[in-house]
Every structure is written in structure tokens, then in C-alpha cells.
Amino acid sequence: MSTLDPSGRKPTLAVVGATGAVGGVMLDILSTRQDVYGEIRLVASARSAGKKLSVRGQRVEVVALAPEVFDGVDIAMFDVPDAVSAEWAPVAAERGAVVVDNSGAFRMDPDVPLVVPEVNADDARKRPRGIIANPNCTTLSMIVAIGALHEHYGLSELVVASYQAASGAGQAGIDVLYDQLERIGGKRELGHRAGDVRSAVDDDLGPFPAPLAMNVVPWAGSLQDGGWSSEELKVRNETRKILGLPGLKVAATCVRVPVVTTHSLAVHAVFESRVDQREAQALLAGSPGVVLNDNPEMYEFPTPADVVGTDPTWVGRVRRSLDDPKALDLFLCGDNLRKGAALNTAQIAELVAAELRG
Amino acid sequence: MSTLDPSGRKPTLAVVGATGAVGGVMLDILSTRQDVYGEIRLVASARSAGKKLSVRGQRVEVVALAPEVFDGVDIAMFDVPDAVSAEWAPVAAERGAVVVDNSGAFRMDPDVPLVVPEVNADDARKRPRGIIANPNCTTLSMIVAIGALHEHYGLSELVVASYQAASGAGQAGIDVLYDQLERIGGKRELGHRAGDVRSAVDDDLGPFPAPLAMNVVPWAGSLQDGGWSSEELKVRNETRKILGLPGLKVAATCVRVPVVTTHSLAVHAVFESRVDQREAQALLAGSPGVVLNDNPEMYEFPTPADVVGTDPTWVGRVRRSLDDPKALDLFLCGDNLRKGAALNTAQIAELVAAELRG
Fold first, then answer.
1. Which of A133, B8, B250, B298 has the highest CB neighbour count under 10 A?
2. Exposed/middle/buried for B61, CB within 10 Å: 0-12, 13-18, 19+?
3. Where does the record place the catalytic residues (chains A, B) (predicted)?
């Protein structure tokens, strides 16, 4: 990959999957962050081709995914299902684009860096396949804050319980949660007998294995060995790769909650050295991309309803464990469509854009 | 405390707080379990005196709390606020009743046993003050299952994240959740921008410090030293006392979720010896008061919507930690008004009734 010509041309960007849930947030983000791109091409499946979408205040026509759309493209963002990325990201890379991929297809490929700009920006330059992967939304909802604490204290173990939003399962997840909330709203007899919520939502479960309204569902992803869900293994494997800690102990339980957008996590983090509550709070407050919101005396702590639509990772309930001077207990919230997906992808693309412009 | 006279008289029971949320479930439980009592007296504040409530198929008039109501009472259940129990439980005990108290007033008193019949039934006999305490609902939602695993493997550490139901905050919590669900139901624009859910529920928060519908709230109870909530400390202190493990390491983060009734917990439990997934599942399946519901291949795991209204502790998602052969990760659900409150109180009272009858 050479730098762009010295004429000062701004890089050409392709957004693949522009019409999806994350794609919509991406266009919003591209319209509000510093404008570092020349042309922006919007790409989607043939079904969506011809649609016009707004980006940077202009209407842009969506073009159908094909090898030629990547000609002249410097950076290609992919927000598409794993199988689509697996097939098309190498095509884009072969045509000279640096791919920033938000699917799970390449995250654990040793020749593909997994990047969170606040944590491991330098890894973005080591991309033998021309592909950079964007982490899973659950990992991203905590990693900036955990990375900052790791840098100071040295992380040795994580125990994570998630409170994941419906939009992590895409637009279908959002739709079914709204449908269910509409069906149960105003019915004060529900929630007292086993199965009554299930009947009230008429088994319209969408992408979830149980009702989500008035419920929590301890499952996300597909079944893996040992009873683990794929989502739980992603939290373990991706955290290890991003932090460069292949032996990090991680135990995650991933649970879906009836929230539209913004993932929350309860984290028990064990470090190599002793921790201090005030010092940890100050470290977090001073870290880029993190907001400390931790004053329980005034009922100040992050909740999804107050965090959704914002960029940072919000951290509250910072406590030193009572029985382990090397452990902290925290509660974190992050918008799973922004930092958890589109924003981090945009940040990686900006790193590449700066690099290409030399 | 002597046993009852040899005529075979059944013990007289007083239910103090009969008109509350737990009291209502208690009358239901008393009407469906084996009938071991003679007279049942229903007691409440003066405001509720004269009301008639159904128990064992009969209408019984509620009497106002006063010292005399305990005359001739063998067992008195208290489901009232801490301050009311603190004042009145000793009065009942002085008049000869064995008190089974569901408040937090006496749980950590060294002269008051804290009893879960499946775990430490024998402790119920050691009651120098004539008072037996019933644990907090969050502790009760996991302790039967954790106790069974402890008996086999020897527990050394717990990391707990809770998903607590609105009814843990009483009828006011239930009411405000229904109100909020009614206000948001059908509004598909909500949940995308910070503060919009807060506006939609018109800051009608009831006993919670943030909106509960379409949200999760990382707070339960009052603020204690080090940023801990009282609920989190109860999980630690009560688990230690019930299991007889004063040095047990416990780190809990307690979070309220928009579920009416049934608490859930994600638990990372570390033991003194190596664990095995299949063996742990078999142990749980064979434990009284526990239902193993753990077949993720068929999407079988407990959720509050399927557990509410039932007696047992439901356990699923049993996994051996990938990075610690001595640790298990689990997801548990328990009805916080039944096993979490009224049922456990009734079970303790039945232990005492059997003891009194010799």
C-alpha cells in the first residue's frame, strides 16, 4: 500500500452494507465527524441498488455489490453478514482498497489486526491481507475502559456478565422488541405466572429464543463446545487479541435484555498489582473515549437510556473488590451501534486515511 | 421454647404484613402447601385492620399490630419493613412466639440464625432470641443451587451479576414498571437518543433512580462504604453466613431490569477442587429445590418469563470456565416473591412447626 499521490487527493471511501442498521448509523457518523474523504460510494445488495441515501448532506445513489465498485477505492468499510464479508473483503483488498470489516469473518485471522484505536492503533498498520477487523459490539462496549486500566495495573482476569440490547441482533431484533412492547403495554396482569408473557407476545420471538419484553434471555449467538455461546467466546478471544494477552483468563455470560440500543456489562477485573478506587476513577476519567459517571450518592451511574446515541464508553459503579485488593468491579455502557460498530469502524478508517495521506 | 402440649394441638400462626406484596403471596402459599397450622391470624398496620383476606379457603379479618395479637401465637411470620420488624419481632418473641422474619433487621445478628431449609435447616434450632431470619431475595435466588455445589466441591469465591425484578422493590416497583410500559408501548421512536425514554416516562420513576422500562439500572438499596450498594453487601454477607464460610470471597454487582417478578443471576463460582460440567449438572438436577434446565442446543435455559410463579431455583448455562478448571459459570432464576421471600419463610415456619409438635 503506497500513500496517495502528492496532489493532496482525499481518499475514496466505499461503505458496503450502507442500507443496514449499522450502515444507517455509519452514514450519520460520516456526516458529523471531520470530513477526511473525497468520494464516498454507497454499496449494498442488488435489491437495494438505486436507493438514494443522505451522507454529508448529499443524496448518494446506492450501487450493487460487484468487483468493479472497488476500483479506485482507497478504504472500504464492510457492515455485512460474515459470509458476505468472507467472500467480498478479499475482492476489495485485491483491487487495492484497505478493508475495515465489521463482521466476524476475519477477527481471529492471525494476518488480520483487530483494532480499537484508543487501545492498539499501531496494529492497524500490520495488515498483510489488506484487511483490518472491527471487534464484536460486546467486546467494544468495555475494551476502551478495560484497556486503560490494563495499561496501568496489568490485567490478569475478567469475569463479565452482559446486558445486551436487541439491536445487537440487527433491525429484526429492534422490530420484534417494539412489537412485543406494544403487545404487553398496559396489560397489568402479565409477569406473574409462568408463560403469560410468552402467550401475550404470541410466540413472535424474532431472532431471540424467548420473549425479550418483560424478560431477560441468557443467550446470544450460536452454540459452541462446552455449552458456551459464540458471543461469550468472542468476548474472550477478541479481548485477548486486542490487548495482546493470549493467556488472559476470561469468563463471560452473555444475556439479552429488553433495551433497544446500548450494551451494558458488569465486569469483575483482576489485575497484577493492587488497585485503588479513587486512582482507578481518575485513570478512567482521563482516558480518551471514556466518560466516568460514578457518583452513586447522587444516583449517578450510566444506564442505556442515558447513554444511547453517544460515542464514549461510560463507566460507573467503580469499586475495589472487598475480598481482593487487586480486583475492581465496574458497570459499563456503550452504544452498540456507535462505538460498538459504526464509530469504531469509522475511527479505524480515519487512522488509515491519515496514514495514506502520509 | 417447649413443644406443644401432647393433645396434638396444631401451632397457631400469625402473619404480620399480610396485606403487602409478599404477604399476598404468603397467603397463597399457605393455602396450597400442607396445612400444618391451627389458627392463622392475619396482622397488618391499623390502616388495614378490618379488611378480610382469603387463606385456606376462608375469609379472615385482618387485625391491627399490637402486643396482644401475639398472645397464644406459636409462630409469627414478619413481612414488614426493617424498622417495624426491629421493633415488633422482639415483642412477639417475648410473648412466646418463634419469629420468622423476612426483613433485613436481624439477618446479621450473631444470635439470629439465617436459614435456607435446603442448605442449613439445623441452624433454625439455634435461636437464643427466638428469632429466625429469612435471607434477602437476591441471595435466595441462587443459594440453594450454590449450596449444593459447595457441598460437593467446596466453594472459595463467587462473582455475581444480578438481573433483578421490579417487585424486589415492592408493589410500588411493580406499579411504576407497568405505568412505564404502558407509556412506551407502541412508541417506535424511543430508545435511539439519550433521554428519550426518560422523557416518555415523564420522570415517573417510583422507587428506582432511573427509568426501568427499556432500560437497566445498576442500583438496588442504599449507598454503603466504597461505593457498594446495600444489596451487593447482603449477597456477600448473607451467603457467607448461610454457608458458614466467613472468609468466602464475594463480588456482586446488582442491577435492576424491566421484569415484574423473578430475579436472575449470572454466577462465576470458584471451588477448592476441579469441577466437571456433566457432574455439576447431575448434582444440580438431583438437588431438592433445584431444577436443571440446561440444553442450549434446544434453546433450553431458564428465563424469568418461564420461571415466575414457580417454587424452585432454576439453573441453566452450566459451563466449566475455559481458563480455570476449578470454576463454573451458571445462569440462575428464582421467583423473588416465592423462594426469594414468602416460600422460604413458609419453609422455615414448617421446620419450626414440626419441631414444636415434637
1. A133
2. exposed
3. 137 (acyl-thioester intermediate), 263 (proton acceptor)
Cβ atoms within 10 A of the Cβ of A352, count?
24
Short-list A239, A2, A203, CA closest to A107: A239
Contact criterion met (CB < 8 Å) for A253 and B317: yes
Per-residue model confidence (pLDDT) at position B1: 46
**pLDDT tens per residue, range B188-226:** 999 999 999 999 998 889 999 999 999 999 999 999 999
pLDDT confidence of residue A353: 96
| Mean pLDDT of successive 10-residue stretches along chain A, which has 358 residues | 64 95 92 94 96 96 97 97 97 98 96 98 97 96 97 98 95 96 94 94 92 98 97 98 98 98 98 98 97 97 97 97 98 95 96 92
Secondary element (H or E) of residue B62: strand B58-64
Report which DSSP code applies to A74: S
Quote the cell numbers at residue B50.
378490618
Reduce the DSSP state of residue A32 to 3 states and report it. Answer: helix
B295–chain A nearest CA distance, Å: 8
Helix%, strand%, coil% for chain A, nearest 5: 35, 25, 40
C-alpha cell at A247: 493467556
- For B122-174, the pLDDT digits (tens) are 999 999 999 999 999 999 999 999 999 999 999 999 999 999 999 999 889 99
Instruction: Please choose, from the candidates B38, B48, B47, B39, the residue with its C-alpha nearest in 3D space to the C-alpha of residue B18.
Output: B48
Query: Could you tell me the three cell numbers for A31?
Result: 456526516
Q: Does B192 qualify as catalytic in the annotation?
A: no
**Contacts of residue A114, Cβ cutoff 8 Å, sequence gap at least 6:** A107, A108, A123, A133, A134, A135, A238, A241, A242
ipTM of the complex: 0.95
Starting at the edge strand found earlier in the chain, the sheet holding B249-253 runs B249-253, B155-163, B263-271, B327-334, B313-320, B290-292
Choose, out of B240, B281, B308, B333, the residue to mutate when testing the contact with A (most A CBs < 10 Å). Answer: B308
What's chain B's average pLDDT? 95
Q: Could you count the other beta carbons within 10 Å of the beta carbon of residue B46?
A: 10
Can you tell me the distance from the alpha carbon of B142 to that of B249, in angstroms, rounded to the nearest whole number? 16
Query: HSE of B2 in the Cβ direction (CA atoms, 13 Å)?
Result: 3
pLDDT at residue B14 greater than cutoff 90: yes
Closest CA to B30 of B9, B51, B11: B11
Name the phi and psi angles at B64, rounded to 5. Answer: -75, 140
Cβ–Cβ of A250/B322 closer than 8 Å?
A: yes
Whether residue B253 contacts residue B232, with contact meaning beta carbons closer than 8 Å, is answered with yes
